[in-house]
Design a protein that fits this description.
alpha+beta, Alpha-Beta Plaits, 2 domains, 12 helices, 5 strands, 64% helix, elongated, Diguanylate_Cyclase, membrane, diguanylate cyclase activity, transmembrane helix, diguanylate cyclase
Length: 369
């Protein structure tokens, strides 16, 4: 299981490659050096030719793992870190060389604990238990094969005592890994819960609980950034001030429960019309601001008219005779204009929409600054 899930995918992939490279270079070099020493001491059955052949295959496998990850093919896997396959391959290399190393067989197998370090904080407990069983049983099979084909090279009692000690050590490491796995799972769960709490607190700070729209302060910060992007030519920017018509009468006549329902329904209608870069803010009781990065004024007007039409079509089971309309003022950001200036023009356009009968959109002129 990969940790650092919040990292950028490219950064995470780079970390995986570095981790695998380090493990292969350190563990593979220790394994190769130990067997080379055994070869020099004449403990490596098969001589130079077998040593070269075996380690050519082992290092070719290591190189295949690294190449697979450098090409990014591991990203298609369920577990892109490839911890278990790499540990199984490395353990298989130990078992094969243990079959041809006399006198130092246990020393070779002890490198298994270095292999374990690669996955102890990443592999699941089930994966680690599988690897431990594979190693211990594989070691027993190796001893059986050596005793069957080269009985003169085996001190049976001594080898099986060593195997027993090795199995106990593996069991102890498995128990330690189980504890680490449990702690890791608890930490992961706590971190997830903490992230949810932080996100909830953040939403409460910047979003209106009833509509899900941004609050005024955060919306003004976002508007300032959007104006900066628009002034650099990224897009045209429309700012819309909107007001639910006669909302106080709705609260007084039908109660605040229906008033809240109207606000929620308005939020639903707006959300259906907004795109990925658009955002809405609740400035007051029934006053709202929409910030719309668009290609031109016509696109912005079409979007707002859709919202007005959507509100006209709303019906409420709690108040069947209630019809809710919306007045809106729209201003397109002019070159060199500040957020405060475009907001003022949108607000003035909204005022004219109300004065001229409500339930309509009025577009502010740029010469009103």
């Amino acid at each position: 299981m990969d940790q650092s899930l919040s990292l950028h995918p490219a950064t995470l992939q780079s970390q995986r490659v570095r981790r695998v490279l380090f493990a292969i270079i350190m563990g593979g070099s220790a394994h190769t050096l130990l067997c080379w020493i055994a070869l020099q001491l004449d403990f490596f059955r098969g001589g130079d030719s077998l040593f070269i052949s075996l380690f050519a295959i082992i290092w070719a496998g290591h190189a295949l793992f690294v190449t697979f990850m450098l090409l990014g093919l591991n990203r298609r896997l369920a577990e892109p870190a490839m911890i278990l396959p790499l540990m199984i391959w490395s353990t298989t290399g130990l078992l094969v060389t243990a079959a041809v190393v006399d006198q130092a067989r246990l020393c070779v197998m002890l490198i298994f604990f270095a292999i374990v370090q690669l996955g102890v904080l990443q592999a699941s407990l089930r994966q680690f238990i599988f690897l431990a069983i594979y190693c211990v049983v594989g070691y027993a099979i190796v001893l059986g094969i050596v005793w069957l084909y080269w009985p003169e090279a085996v001190d049976v009692q001594g080898e099986w005592i060593q195997w027993g000690l090795f199995a106990v050590m593996v069991m102890a490491v498995a128990l330690l890994a189980a504890e680490i796995s449990t702690i890791r799972s608890l930490l992961s769960k706590r971190n997830s819960q903490l992230a949810e709490v932080v996100e909830r607190i953040h939403d409460m700070a910047v979003k209106d609980e009833l509509t899900g729209f941004y609050r005024r302060r955060h919306a003004m910060e976002l508007l300032s950034k959007a104006c900066g992007q628009a002034s650099r030519g990224a897009f045209s920017l429309a700012v819309v001030y909107a007001d639910l018509d006669f909302f106080k009468r709705i609260n007084d006549g039908y109660g605040h429960g229906v008033g809240d329902l109207v606000l929620q329904r308005f939020a639903e209608v707006v959300s259906r019309h907004l795109g990925g870069q658009d955002f809405a803010a609740r400035l007051g009781g029934e006053e709202f601001m929409l910030v719309l990065p668009v290609s031109d004024q016509q696109e912005a007007c079409h979007l707002v008219e859709g919202i007005l039409m959507g509100m006209r079509s709303q019906r409420f089971a709690e108040a069947p005779e209630l019809n809710v309309t919306l007045s809106a003022g729209l201003a397109m950001l002019a070159q060199g204009e500040t957020p405060a200036q475009v907001i003022r023009r949108a607000d003035e356009a909204l005022y004219r929409a109300k004065e001229s009968g409500r339930d309509k959109l009025v577009v502010g002129s740029r010469n009103e600054q």
